[in-house]
Amino acid sequence: MRSLVTLANIAILVMLLAAATLLFPLHGAGPAWSAQTQVSEIRVLGNVVVSNKDVFLSDICDSDTLPGEWKTLAQSINIGDSPPAGSEKFVDPNQLRAYLTKLLESRGVNAAEVNLVVPEKIIVRRQSVQISPEQVETIFKQFVAENSPWKEQEYSLSRIHFSGLPVVPSGQLTWEIIPTTPRERFIGNVTANIEFFVNGEKVRTLGVTGRVEVFANVYLATRPLKQNEMITSADLKMQKVNITDSADRFAMRPDQVENRRVLRAIGINRPVELKDLDKPLVLKRGDPVTILYEQPGLQVTAKGQVSSDAGVGDTLSVVNVSSRKTIVCKVVDGQTVRAVQ
User: Fold this and answer.
1) Which domain holds residue 50?
2) What is the reported pTM?
3) DSSP string spanning 100-144?
């Protein structure tokens, strides 16, 4: 990328001269501008490489041709922004020559007696570095490893993709990586933005995607399970399978299968799906319970015994131990039922 810097077009000529006049007294007024400040030659460089975001007059002048005070002055005069990393700018030589002439005259120096060596082409480039694919992949892998809920042996990361390799200015490079989904689960397609900073200033954002395949132990049926059968530990075994596209589909914890009834037949060596299991049983036939009899402003309890297996929220028959009457109740928890009016 190339662009033309014309100092006149952006009014830099006038502003810089005014700034220089304010910073330093005119016509040698003051001890800093003595006979030692006489300059006989100013040599401008044709190819300039800068490391900062601003270009100063000292960057484009050969410092060997400038006396100490003039060198200090040149270091204080900002002539514009540096080009973006990986691109270049042209400084208009005619405008620069005119500016240098006025700057010399503002210091009481006869510009005609100074040899101004200004090349026909002045190119300014900014030092830059290109971030490697390996560096991007390393950043993304570290991001997944530090933020995903999976252990290293439980997942694999592949198909890392990004568009273009960032070219950034040279300097101290740091970065932050932010998931594009606020509640990223780190399973399946994972996307994030890497924000690159140079010397603390943000210079580039790069979008990255990757595929996280997750493997987990799930329960499999060791024999054909019939509809309405109660599951026992002997009916199950665990095996590692890919759950990437179905993380919430299979039973993976004991509490998800214990005291559960099979709602539909499950074939041998087939993963047990949560949708094929009834809710857990909290009561078994014959268990003792507390019966709650509730009326507005009144609550009475009695001892009871359930007549069937049940889960929380189920309705079942309960025998009142004292009266031997059978009443219909709703299960509150593993110790309590509420009489249904």
Assistant:
1) 2-126
2) 0.62
3) HHHHHHHTT--GGGSEEE--S-EEEEE-EEEPPHHHHHHHHHHHH
